[in-house]
Amino acid sequence: MVLDGESRHIQAISPRLTQLLGIPDKERHALTASSVLGKRLSQRLRHELQGQQRLTSPLAFSRPHTLTRFQLNAYRNERHVIVEIEPLNPLGKRRLLGTVNERLMRIAEATHQEELLDYLVTAVQQLTGHDRVSVCHFDSDWHGLIVAEAQGGHLPVLLGQRFPASDFPITLRRAYERHPVRLIYDVNAPADMLLMYTPEAEIDLRHCFLRAPAPERQRYLQRLGVRGALSIAMQGDTGLWGLLFCHSAAPHPVAPPVRDAVRTLVQMATQRLLLLRARQEARYLQRVQDSLVLSANARVEPQSPAQLLNEQAETWCSLFRAHGVALWLKGSVSASGHTPTAPVICQFVKRLEKAHRHSGPWCTRGVASEPLTASLSMPDQCGILAVPLSMNPAARGWLIFFRPEQVETLYWAMQPTSAPLPAVMVAPSAAWCEEVVGRSEAWQRVERLAVMDLGEDLTLAISAYEISTLNMHLERERKALADANQRLEQLAHFDPLTQVWNRYRIEQAIEAELVAAKRYGAAFALLLFDVDHFKQINDTHGHGVGDEVLVSLARLVEASLRGCDHLGRWGGEEFVVLATHSDIEAAVGLAERLRSLVATLHVSGLDQPITVSIGVAIWRPGDSCKTLMGRADVAMYRAKRSGRNRVEIAEERVL
Predict the structure, then answer these.
(1) Assessment of whether the complete model's pTM goes beyond 0.70
(2) For 523-552, what is each residue's pLDDT tens digit?
(3) Whose CA is closest to 238, among 286, 270, 280?
(4) Fold: same for 93-187+226-281 and 497-649
(5) Does 3.90.25.10 match the CATH number of domain 93-187+226-281?
(6) Do the beta carbons of residue 183 and residue 161 sit within 8 Å?
(7) What is the Cα 369 distance to its own chain's centre?
């Protein structure tokens, strides 16, 4: 039912609605909002929609002389109010609530993605009774892969099969981001034509929940052999992660309470899925950090770049699933495993220097089709991951990983065709098989993050070696060495982007403070913080704006510290403040002051506020740098989980 902007006069109405509410045809043209909904419900609708785009929650009502209860949803659309009404079938609400709570607990206890998604589709299939419930995950090209499925036996199995990105156009994906639930009771049901009370009114029903499917979507579902469908969006931290599909071979209603219960299960499962992925990535990053070359021995006895590569190549190739690694420094190449020839690597670096100027990594999984590498002789390589090493402002080195071809067999749910689709066509029982050649495994986001950490540490190790080499010629080249030492000191102790202390230098200062604390009992604190939603800033505005955020933030914070306090970049968007002679009250006061100060920061080209989450840890007897930083890290992530832009105090010990 379409009402005017004040929710008083009917502009259009569906014939099916009058049948549903038991309104005789002869009364249809004399209807008002009050006569359809009742005076009290009409007044409540007008009151709750004042200044609002939609009702905060559905309204339930009943009509005189009927036993059926109905559910009403309403929202504003330009100059109209769209009212959607559906039967509210009686359900055992307590039993449904108990069932949902039990399934939510099971979802919260899942420890692996496969276990979580398998339980989710089974739980949803039991709740709705659909013939097939599937989870479809989108890859970076928006192709969909069915990663979990529960079967009722009346529709073919789709598990492990793919759907092309053309099945999920951007308009459809955006619609799911705005309206995450879509129900189609019967694909073949004829659409109602609105009875227009105001013929000149132009009414947009694209965002109705109870609307009929578009003709192309109707043909698509018919092609799959589907009559009833319920789909729910699974929103990730950076956009649409995937969709949960419920399909039936026959028309299939889903009561509103069941629909709401399914949406709750999907939302909870998606959040758990993101948490499991974050934990998995954290474990991987820790393994990469454990392999870093700048150990205590490397600091005492610096090794040459070739020696470092020789010792670490096998470990690095294993971590990054590569079959070769090369290090390019000042025109010289050190390599291990399966790599191109040194002249080819030099030519590749020359092109990289022109095309890739920011500090992040560069990667491809299709060397032969990538314009930068297509003309280079790399017959055994299909994937490349390269990270720059910022040795000095005028020149960079490069650490480069190579991957071989991985022939991939993809199973598509339906073979692509250019011929017009028939009105009804059931999907074939056997999937269409495609063999993809000329590509490597994809470089995962966490691998791109990890290679940056590795590149920073390798830069420091190489700098330490250069310092050692130059010091051996001190007597012969005293003047030249003075300039080189100043440059290398900057590289060894300061972050090349923000120009504050790097991780190596701030660790030195923390160790010195620990010695003083143990000897004299002088308390001090660590404040660990990072930029909230930094990945979103990089993805939306580019790495240039992301770098400017880090530089501006570092300048602002460093300028506000006492002379005895120190700021260092811990890695990525993480920074640490060493607050000397500080007890818990002083440290928390400093943290709150920094948090408020950062919130005032403005960066050109960025229209969103910049905030930080801060973890505060106070030195306790027996602390080491690792335990102190560990407690600060736990507190910082507690601040992020609690809503970000806040300060949390670390517990005395992390078990």
Answers:
(1) no
(2) 899 999 999 999 999 998 998 999 999 999
(3) 270
(4) no
(5) no
(6) no
(7) 28
